[in-house]
Amino acid sequence: MNRDRFKSVAFYGTAGTALLLALVALFFIVEQRRTQAETGAVLSAFFSQVVLHDIDKWDAGSTITIVVMRNPYSEPWLGSDSPSWFAKSLKSRGSLVSEAWFGQSLKMTRASFLLNSVFSRNLSTDLRLPSGARAVFVNPSDLGAKEGDFDARFPDNFGYFIVSHVGLNLNKTEALLYVDHFCPRMCGAGGEYFLLRKVNGVWHVTDSHVAWVS
Predict the structure, then answer these.
(1) Rounded to two decimals, what is the model's pTM?
(2) What are phi and psi of 56, to 5 degrees?
(3) CB neighbour class for 180 (10 Å; exposed up to 12, middle 13-18, buried from 19)
(4) Of 14-18, 80-84, 149-153, which has the strongest mean pLDDT?
(5) Are 130 and 55 within 8 A, CB to CB?
(6) Start-end of H helices in the chain
(7) Could you tell me how far CA 17 lies from the centroid of its own chain?
(8) pLDDT, tens digit, 9 for 90 and up, residues 188-197
(9) What's the average model confidence in pLDDT over 44-64?
(10) CA of 147: how far to CAs of 8, 60, 150, 153, in Å?
């Protein structure tokens, strides 16, 4: 192969790779915007129906604080040997989502879920929670370094939650997300997948799958 032909092959190869990367980036941006519009509604449904489902029976004089990490890959109180989904490689996460339980969700929902979870980015959205509860998005530094700092800053909390970005099907009627929950007190921790479906314009948690418990 002469030098000119080699340069030509290298040029077209580089151009083709750049075009492919540009298309992937464009698809990722479009997918982000597509799911962002529903993120608040999906997370509101999750916290309202799973975490705060019986809030009407609690002490009406206090406000429950739902603490959510801004960056899904921030794990300030998590050991390196934890089975957390966020700590796993993309290959491991992909194999997990191919398990039998996920057959209840559409392939597009799972693909969207994985795609939106590949790159770390901040999670921030408006949540509509039942009366008597509020949501706060925080960074690891906001949790405090000393024992008691967390409870002092966020009284009546449920520990903190690390929530994945939402995966949606094309019609935005099915959603998949993953949630890690950690508590500074001796109340355990765990990770769980949740499947939601929209019925008459309202999101409902329809199923869940425990990934780990500590």
Answers:
(1) 0.81
(2) -65, -15
(3) buried
(4) 149-153
(5) yes
(6) 3-46, 90-96, 107-118, 149-153
(7) 30
(8) 788 899 999 9
(9) 84
(10) 63, 27, 7, 12
DSSP-assigned beta bridge partners for residue 21: none
pLDDT tens digit sequence for 63-84:
889 999 988 876 665 554 556 7
Collect all residues with Cβ–Cβ distance below 8 Å to 73 and sequence separation of at least 6. Answer: 86, 120
CB 105 within 8 A of CB 194: no
Residue 184, classified by CB atoms within 10 Å of its CB into exposed (0-12), middle (13-18) or buried (19+), is middle
Q: How far is CA 169 from its chain centroid?
A: 16
Which strand (E) or helix (H) includes residue 203? Answer: strand 202-213
Report how far apart the first and last C-alpha atoms of the chain are (Å, whole number).
61
- The angle, 0 to 180 degrees and rounded to 10, between the axes of the packed helices 3-46 and 107-118 is 110
pLDDT tens-digit series, residues 107-145 = 999 988 988 887 667 888 889 999 889 999 998 888 776
Range 77-96 burial, b when 16+ CB lie within 10 A, else e: ebeeebebbbbeeeeebeeb
Residue type, 1: M
Q: What type of residue sits at position 4?
A: D
Q: Which residue has the higher pLDDT, 64 or 94?
A: 64
pLDDT on residue 11: 65
